[in-house]
Model the fold of this input.
Amino acid sequence: MVLPGLGQWLQGRRVAAWVFLIAALLAWIVWLGWLVHLGAAVDADRHVAR
Done:
């Protein structure tokens, strides 16, 4: 949860990674970035090859 979109980037999902990163940066302007950070972590966990 250090960098939103990093999990998606490592999975090869580049577009999703950029979307989460940009959304987090914009959301932190209004102090809601933690929501995007949490969403990125959940999304990356759901797409892990199990």
